[in-house]
Amino acid sequence: MQIRGRAALVTGANRGIGRAFARELVEHGAVVYGAARRPELITDAGVVPIRLDVTDPATIAEATETIGDLSILVNNAGTGFAGSVLAGSLENARREMEVNYFGTWAVTQAFAPTLARNGGGAVINMLSAASWLALQQAAGYAASKAAQWSLSNAMRLALREQGTHVLGVHVGYVDTDLSAGVDLPKISPEEVARAAIKAVVSDEEEVLVDEFSRQIKSALPNDIAELYLAR
Fold first, then answer.
1. Max Cα separation, the chain?
2. CA-to-CA distance for 63 and 67, rounded, in angstroms?
3. Average pLDDT of 206-216?
4. Rounded CA gap, 132 and 217, in Å?
5. Rounded to whole angstroms, how far apart are CA atoms 144 and 157?
């Protein structure tokens, strides 16, 4: 799809991957709205700050009224906590589902009519290699991403009739606050945003940004013991 001149909304645009998405879309000539619970934190040139909490129906409704001309929705807002199945906080796990899963659903549902009025456009969902790989020390986060992946596939089917393209973006560890405590190789938020925008321009349905996500995806058809061997 063409991006120049189109209006785009990026949730969680105040930092990390969301901020990189907003900047990349500006570079491609889009009119960019950057959404966050604290929009005053969004100061990048060319990005219009807008208040939106993906867990708050009132701010979602306000955003749909403010942005009447939308062609690209980037569901990037997300959260994650450390915690195993045996010792993790269920309150944190519920928060992960509320933001990562239900938040993506709520925002997409709210903006789907707007996308349809503007020719269909595209929805970009920021997923993870954790969509396919359970994480012992972040069980709730991985479960929320698996749910978000399934939801993305359902969206692809539901939005097809109105001409809305759905892209799922998978990646391993990215150099953001969320993975600050992980001592493993990471890629930059800018690499993620560039790969995702390139994929949506090419009308791809899924992009595996790094080697880690490609390895995990390739292991899926194999025996589950092989997927979790030595992890």
1. 50
2. 6
3. 95
4. 7
5. 20
Q: Which of 131, 144, 150, 37 is nearest to 95 (CA)?
A: 144
Would you list the domain boundaries of the chain?
Answer: 7-227
Greater confidence (1 vs 110) lies with: 110
| Type of residue numbered 19 | R
Nearest alpha carbon to residue 42 among 22, 62, 58, 28: 22
CB atoms within 10 A of CB 221: 8
Question: What CATH number should be reported for the domain whose range is 7-227?
Answer: 3.40.50.720
Non-local CB neighbours of 86 within 8 Å, separated by 6+ positions = none
| Average pLDDT along the chain | 94
Helix crossing, 16-27 with 189-201: angle to 10°? 50
Phi, psi at 35, each rounded to 5°: -105, 140
Mean pLDDT in residue range 87-104:
98
Half-sphere exposure of 231 (CA within 13 A, CB side): 14
The set of residues, in sequence order, having a beta carbon less than 8 Å from that of 5 and lying 6+ positions away, is: 29, 30, 31
Instruction: Classify 47 as helix, strand or coil.
Output: strand
Q: Tell me which residue has tokens 């907003």.
A: 22
